[in-house]
Amino acid sequence: MSFKIATAVNSEQHPYTAAIAEGWDVVGNANGGYLLAIGARAMAAAAARPHPISITAHYLSPGRPGPVTIDPQIVKAGRRLTTVRATLQGAEKPLIELLGSFGDLESFEGPARVDASPPDMPPPEECERTIPDPELGFPPAMMGRVDLRLHPDDAFLKGKPSGDPLMRGWLRFPDDEPMDPFGLLLATDCFPPTIFNANLPVAWTPTVELTAHIRAIPEPGWLRCRFSTRFISGGMMEEDGEVWDSTGRLVAQSRQLALTPQA
Amino acid sequence: MSFKIATAVNSEQHPYTAAIAEGWDVVGNANGGYLLAIGARAMAAAAARPHPISITAHYLSPGRPGPVTIDPQIVKAGRRLTTVRATLQGAEKPLIELLGSFGDLESFEGPARVDASPPDMPPPEECERTIPDPELGFPPAMMGRVDLRLHPDDAFLKGKPSGDPLMRGWLRFPDDEPMDPFGLLLATDCFPPTIFNANLPVAWTPTVELTAHIRAIPEPGWLRCRFSTRFISGGMMEEDGEVWDSTGRLVAQSRQLALTPQA
Fold first, then answer.
1. Domain Acyl-CoA thioesterase-like C-terminal, which positions (chains A, B) (predicted)?
2. Chain B residues with beta carbon closer than 8 angstroms to that of A226
3. Which of chain A's termini has less CB crowding within 10 Å, N or C?
4. Is residue B96 part of a domain?
5. In Å, how far are A7, A195, A229, B127 from B63, measured between CA atoms?
């Protein structure tokens, strides 16, 4: 099942309906970027704007496969942007709470100055493909839904953790499925946690909040992604993401706040 | 009037009430960090949690002095965090839409690893104090509500723009008013825009969205702040903030997405 179908939303009646598909999970719980993409599709439909520009999700409860509802509420419909809030609701509990502004990226223009560049990596075929192992439950099932190739220096599975909380890699959908701004939302939260490369006890780091800025529509081809953490402290860590398209343009930026394992 | 009084919220009845005070404005419009602090106080009161942990604001309309209402709605009350959404509503229009998670920073703990340090700056007395000029309207009135000293290399007013979209400086409240996590929210949005130091047409850059993570309760004394921009492109720019306390600890991190002047 393609990402497009797995994140499709029926917006014919309010609340909108969608379904968490099988296989987008990490040990049974749907990936956060995947849930974000479902929510964003519903909000964009309500806003009648094609693209998320900035969207924030607070993660409330794990999502399991099955039906969900989304109830987008227009906060303000402006000239260039429409701001929307929504709850992505599972069968029993709210899963994520969302707030975002939507617009048409093709209508944006302005001066350019970029003081960064895509991560320098060996070609995809020399990077480490993460393939799910159903028996171990790791790499998680959702790695089967994307084609993700980790930089060999960051491939904690095959070697040792690098010691740096950094994850770099290539990303695309299988079967030549095109990447769009909703796919970029998935990209901001589908890499292994940066803490897996730190010399700290390895554990899942639950996301409190994730904000993604979609800066441009990606051109076809591999994405290059870079996730890094500078501040692990006080029970929390941030994870900063950059997503670059095949032309070397930044297409998305993200930051999440996650909880670290309690001492 | 102290920051504490200027951001006080009456939470005795729903919706809560507050007032935008005089003098916290930039050419008549209330500063975004100041509005965020009012909203966050209301949300923390509703959550019965002392501190914002992660909070996002989407800016809808400029705020003018006068009464406002805030209608915090609990999204989820969890074990460690309570998630709340709210609209800060002015006399005629909604001003900002908010989503945040609140908790008690004193209850958070975990491993520490920090790969950054506070900005290196001359002492406050050798930095450039920004003092409002009511005739020019610049520096803006709100600079009279804080004691803000810009790094001489970034003080675009006295010298020339540095060419780098970077703003570093010291910050405290006047009259020894203590700094708290709500003051940190102000800190994330009260420096001059980084674009004032870029070799680009100078213009106000309206904030679409700002997210702040409060990482620790600040110790007394000067804050050191650093705001930088790496990606000016496609009509948008991000501004990344770090706020460090007098002990050299990161106490807040922020990112905003702003619109650049259209070509």
1. 124-259
2. none
3. C
4. yes
5. 38, 41, 35, 31
